[in-house]
Write a structure and sequence with these properties.
Blueprint: H1 2-50, H2 54-67, H3 72-84, H4 88-101, H5 106-118, H6 122-135, H7 140-164, H8 168-181, H9 186-198, H10 202-215, H11 220-232, H12 236-249, H13 256-278, H14 282-295, H15 300-316, H16 320-333, H17 337-349, H18 353-366, H19 371-386, H20 392-396, H21 404-417, H22 426-446, H23 449-456, E1 480-482, E2 495-497
Antiparallel strand pairs: 1-2
């Protein structure tokens, strides 16, 4: 029985040893295959790097690092790509890992010293570069970088002094030079942004602060500052985008969240006003612009857009006085030629020709060759000349912005009031006939789109001397007068025969 058990155990042991032997061979084969794949990834990565395909190169180097985390060359090649695409932090992580794996890799130490220099970590850069020049005295690049460290430190101290004394121009000049050597130090970008703000150059300050948010992580303060600066410039949409970036990092941020609530309203009303303007919905445009002013009582950059929309939309709605005021408020903020033209159009609605001409000329002074201003001057001069003749809008008692429906309504009311048959006295009848003719002429011109356009441009289409031309029944004394569109009092075609003595 014992012999049987021993034989049975021996067979099981032999099978187990055979399994281990096969498993070991399998592991060896897998390891060889993995190393071949790693070499292939490294080679493909270098090929991609040579052609500038950095994203593809990174993908291959990531695969090589994942397959063998102990291969320092994989990290080194990946760090080279990171530095080529200005990703300093992951590049530094890889260089740190390399020097953990192989502390005597001098080329990596030199790379890290140069990277630390570009990041503005000058004390750490000094240590690495000193190590390199001590072991490689003939390395001219390292020698130059090493000798530069102390000089850069001194220059940065000078820059801080300039800014403390509000001497921004030399500070910016020095920072421009230093950032050639230290491009990835966010603190220097912040210094230059402060200097730009000190000089009132908000656009350049925004550019530097945006760089800071890319060079740092979780920079809610940077996004808040960007949102605030864009808002001050009147760039509400851009401001909202930046504040959203802040809230992605901290949804309850004490500064970003209150600004976000306000921005949502302002952007909504500004966009509503813009869309209404594009759809010729003047009332909605005015209402939305007024809500912008209510929600933003102080920031002129935002209020400008509201005044601008009110200037245009009030004018189109026929609210000339409100339009003039809004245009003037907008001009105080931004001295733009088109605003003078909008205000001039509002003056024309009130027959203030000299004021309109002054504004059109002011627009031309600000933009020579401005077509709208040139055409506006010609129009205003024609209207001024026309002012001594019949004013069809005044005859019907309607605004220049009145609709065809409003004109017809005014015409019917006046035609009934001044119908010659209502007057018995001969003198009164003559006056009524003249009034009646003017009323009918006004209706004929203002309800015809082409004739009204000519009239609004300063040309009376019923005036033979003015070149209006056309078949006008009023030109023939004692002839039958017809009403286009039929009898204004109802029924069939209405005809009235005038008799002139």
């Amino acid at each position: 029985m014992n012999e049987f058990n021993v034989a049975h155990l021996s067979k099981r042991m032999a099978s187990f040893l055979l399994f281990l032997s096969c498993f070991d061979s399998l592991l060896y084969w897998v390891n060889c295959a993995t190393q071949a794949e790693i070499d292939q990834h490294l080679q493909l990565g270098m090929n991609m790097l040579a052609t500038g395909a950095y994203s593809d190169a990174l993908s291959h180097f990531h695969a090589a690092v994942d397959a063998d985390p102990s291969n320092y060359m994989s990290y080194y090649k990946r760090a080279t790509v990171y530095m080529a695409i200005s990703r300093s932090r992951p590049a530094l992580n890889d260089l740190d890992k390399i020097l953990q794996l192989k502390p005597d890799f001098l080329k990596a130490r030199h790379q890290r010293g140069g990277l630390l220099l570009k990041m503005g970590r000058l004390d750490e850069a000094h240590i690495d570069l000193e190590n390199v020049v001590r072991r490689e005295p003939e390395n001219e690049v390292a020698q130059k970088q090493y000798s530069m460290v102390n000089t850069l430190k001194e220059q940065i101290e000078d820059i801080r002094d300039y800014i403390n004394w509000n001497n921004y121009e030399p500070a910016i000049e020095m920072l421009n030079e230093i950032l050639e050597h230290i491009p990835w130090d966010p603190s220097l970008r912040e210094l230059r942004a402060d200097a730009y703000l000190g000089m009132g150059n908000v656009v350049h300050a925004i550019s530097d602060i945006r760089s800071v948010t890319k060079l740092t992580s979780d920079n809610t303060g940077g996004f808040f500052k960007l949102a605030t600066l864009h808002y001050q410039l009147g760039e509400a949409d851009e401001s909202l985008n930046e504040i959203r970036e802040c809230l992605k990092l901290d949804p309850e941020h004490k500064d970003c969240f209150p600004l976000y609530k306000k921005l949502k309203k302002v952007v909504k009303f500004l966009n509503n006003a813009k869309e209404a303007r594009e759809k010729d919905d003047w009332e909605e445009c005015v209402a939305s612009a007024q809500k912008v002013l209510k929600n933003e009582p102080t920031v002129t950059g935002i209020r400008f857009h509201a005044h601008d929309r009110l200037c245009h939309c009030h004018g189109k709605a026929g609210n000339s006085a409100e339009s003039r005021k809004a245009c003037s408020d907008a001009i105080k903020i931004e001295d733009e030629p088109r605003l003078y033209c909008d205000r001039a159009d509002a003056y024309l609605q009130e027959d203030l020709y000299d004021e309109a001409l002054n504004d059109f000329r002011a627009a031309l002074e600000r933009e020579e060759g401005f077509t709208r201003a040139k055409e506006g001057i010609a129009k205003a001069q024609k209207l001024q000349k026309q002012a001594g003749k019949r004013d069809y809008y005044k005859i019907l008692g309607v605004k220049r912005s009145s609709t065809k429906k409003e004109i017809n309504k005014a015409y019917k009311k006046l035609a009934m009031q001044w119908h010659p048959d209502k007057f018995l006295d001969e003198e009164d009848k003559k006056i009524a006939e003249k009034k009646f003719m003017d009323i009918a002429a006004a209706k004929e011109v203002l309800t015809d789109a082409d004739m009204r356009t000519k009239y609004d441009q300063g040309e009376d289409p019923l005036d033979a001397e003015g070149g209006g031309g056309g078949d006008h029944p009023f030109r023939h004394g004692g002839q039958q007068f017809h009403f286009p569109g039929g009898n204004p009092f109802g029924g069939g075609p209405f005809q009235f025969k005038f008799h002139f003595n």
